[in-house]
Amino acid sequence: MDRLWGMEVFLRVMECGSFSRAAESLDLANATVTSSLRNLEKHLGVTLIQRNTRHLHLTEEGRLFLPRCQEILKAVAQAESDVKVNANDIAGPLRIEAPFAIGQSLICPALIEFAKRHPDLSVSVTLTNHPQKLIERGTDIAIRMDRIEDADLVGRPIYEAKHIVCGAPALVQRMNTSHPQEVDTRLCLGLFEEGQSTAIPWVLRQNEDEVVIEPRGILNFNNTQALIQAASQEMGVIHVLDIFVADLISQGKLVELFPGWDTKVRTFHAVTVKSRFTSPKVRAFIDYLLEVFDAQRRPSIKTRVEVGPARKTKKSH
Q1: Dihedral sign for Cα atoms in the order 22, 27, 30, 32
Q2: 182 lies in a domain?
Q3: Which pLDDT score, from 0 to 100, does residue 163 have?
Q4: Average pLDDT in the 63-92 region?
Q5: β-strands 265-273, 153-167: how paired?
């Protein structure tokens, strides 16, 4: 039996002075109140209330039990209240994981304002290009591109980025190219993945045309920020996600080549464990990310996210 419920019924009967008024206050049938009290008495093996047609009297056992019930129910109510208040607080530790590129260029700088808005939070950020298991690491929220590790996670699409080719204005002017096929690949700085030694090819499409550029510049990196820094110093042109160079382009420090050409699109997701998705601090951070990222480039909330490790595709020779 539900002993707490039985205690509450017992207490309400004594407060109201009758079974019928107690039933009315609890929005229950009289028989339900009577049955609940009888079940409690049966569980305790004692009679708590002596009753006749006009009056209710506590037995000796009832007089001992009543104040204990009051204490217990008050403690339960206080505990529930404390938990509800805490659950609605944006406070405590918030553990974030993000890839190096987006973490360094966007997430970490944006956290300054986020921390000012929520001073009761303690934010920890891990930057890594090797996604960790969120549950085992105790991570509250992570930034993922295109896919999540498993079905125990839920992803909220926050930004859709595309690759662009860009470089320092003076270098781009000297190159004087209007078509991707005219690009000198020796001026193309490459980005390679960890564990690889060759740069990732650039693929540009326009209508039925497709151009693949193999970077053969003198500098290649596995870090986007290093690549951008080299491009800013006129060492070559680069192929990066627009989100990483948007500010530099708006400031005129870099300029885009071939804006009419389509390139690969990557979708950023804010990912968390399903059980934490409704946490106020997690929701606050996701809402803040949506505020920081360009709303016009936000994917539909219905955007599908791939689940599981990326499949390796065989290259044709």
Answers
A1: negative
A2: yes
A3: 93
A4: 80
A5: antiparallel
Residues 245 and 173 grouped into a single domain: yes
Per-residue CA distances from 97 to 90, 104, 183, 278 (Å): 19, 12, 37, 18
Q: Is the dihedral of CA 214, 220, 223, 225 positive or negative?
A: negative
Is 205 inside any structural domain? Answer: yes
Query: Do residue 118 and residue 197 come from a single domain?
Result: no
Separation of alpha carbons 160 and 314, rounded Å: 26
Backbone angles phi, psi at 60, to 5 degrees: -60, -45
In the block, residue with structure tokens 């564990």: 195
Burial 94-130 (b: 16+ CB within 10 A, else e): bbbbbbebbbbbbbeebbeebeeebeebeeeeebeee
Other beta carbons within 10 Å of 198: 11
Residues 76 and 109 occupy one common structural domain: no
pTM: 0.61
For the stretch 166-197, pLDDT in tens is 999 999 999 999 899 999 999 999 999 877 77
Tokens of 299: 């994917």
CATH number of the domain within which 204 lies: 3.40.190.290
315 within a domain of the structure (yes/no): no
Answer yes or no: do 252 and 228 share one domain.
Answer: yes
Measured CA to CA in angstroms, residue 163 lies from 47, 166, 169, 201, 292 at distances of: 78, 10, 18, 12, 20
Q: Residues 6 or more apart from 218 whose CB is under 8 A from it?
A: 186, 235, 236
Is 270 buried (19+), middle (13-18) or exposed (0-12) by CB count in 10 A? Answer: buried
Residues 165 and 253 in one domain: yes
Quick: pLDDT tens for 210-262.
Answer: 999 999 999 999 889 999 999 999 999 999 999 899 889 999 999 999 998 99
Residue ranges making up the domain that contains 124: 92-158+268-307
